[in-house]
Amino acid sequence: MADSKKVEIIKPPSQLRDKVTVGGPNAVGPEAIARAEQAIADLGDNYLEWAQEDLVKIQTAFAELDNEGGEDREAVLKRIFSVAHDMKGQGGSFGYELVTSVGNLLCRLIERLDGSVTPATENEAIRIHIDAMSLVISSQMKGEGGPEGMAILKGIQQMGTKLVPSK
Amino acid sequence: MADYNLEHLKVLIVDDNRHMRALVRSILYALGMRHVEDASDGSEAFKKLQNFAADIVICDWNMEPLNGLDFIRLIRTSADTPNPYLPVIMLTGYTDANHVFEARDCGVHEFLAKPVSAEQLYARIKAVIERERVFVKAGSYFGPDKRRRDDPKYTGIERRKGKKKESSDSDDDVLSAEDTDALLNG
């Protein structure tokens, strides 16, 4: 009993401070940060290609939701969640914040699926989100997408909540 | 705050998404780092650590076969670990309080929400350098001290200093909104 309450404090043997230097021409200042942001922007040229690959993956998985002889529904939903989660995590880095926002809504939607609505209704709610991401990417709608982007986001938010209400 | 030269630091990126690995690697190179390796899941990463003495791990959560949390547990507690004190920055899309809480309890040093920016990633690296953390071994927990700062308003037991104030068992078990925000935003 006494041992379970025992607290041991340990100072790690080496600290990162010993491995870095301060200042100098190679130190990280505003220029290095700008270079790093530029490196991200350069990768952004590839982003739409990556996003297209993700869209194909998520659309393929979605098509399997109706395939009764295929993978179990839970497993397919997990795959859809995984791709949506990746898209959520990447869009904003490359200036596609709307992809991140819609991806987040899709993840939250899948998390609240508990069998309280029919599979057809669940599918419809998921489809709206996938179609929105497809539209954002195909029309290269950067940032939050302006008034059109706001309208898309509001629309799928309302439809998602209407079809699969939050508890 | 100081500007650091990071060229001697070794970093291991662990993410199952190759685009994320490419993105993080590009940021690190632009920040002047030269020693960067990557792995696509916790199992591959743990093997890499046997031959690559990383100073920092930047780790995703959701990976197969071995996810980020199980990988961190291996780093902290496995008999084969090359460095149980290895600083870990968790880079993930899971940003709700429960996930942040779980990551902290698993022994991460810093938490960073995807999508990532260069400035945010450098801020976390700086935090790992500047906030030198002692490690705590208490019950089943082994990892960096979960308390990120001294709180003058804290009235519970000062367990680690042996000073008894008022009885409270909640200091390590409840993550306040402020703590969650601090973990997410540095």
Strand order of the largest sheet of chain B: 3-2-4-5-6
Structural domain tally of chain A: 1
Output mean pLDDT of chain B: 84
Just give the CATH class of chain B. Answer: Alpha Beta
The class by helix and strand makeup of chain A works out as mainly alpha
How is the biggest beta sheet of chain A arranged?
none
* SSE string of chain A, helices as H and strands as E: EEHHHHH
Q: What's the number of structural domains of chain B? A: 1
The strand count of chain A comes to 2
Distance between the termini of chain B: 14 Å
Largest sheet of chain B: 5 strands, parallel
State the low-pLDDT regions of chain B, or none: 154-175
State the end-to-end distance of chain A.
41 Å
Low-pLDDT runs of 5+ residues of chain A are none
Verbal overview:
- Chain A is mainly α.
- Chain A has five helices and two strands.
- Chain A has one domain: HPT domain (Four Helix Bundle (Hemerythrin (Met), subunit A)), CATH 1.20.120.160.
- In chain A, helix 3 packs antiparallel against helix 4 and helix 4 packs antiparallel against helix 5.
- Chain A starts with 6 loop residues before the first strand and ends with a helix.
- Chain B starts with a strand and ends with a helix.
- In chain B, 34% of the residues lie in helices and 18% in strands.
- Chains A and B meet through strand 1, strand 2, helix 1 and helix 2 of A and strand 1, helix 1, helix 5 and strand 7 of B.
- Strand 1 of chain A pairs antiparallel with strand 7 of chain B, so a sheet runs across the interface.
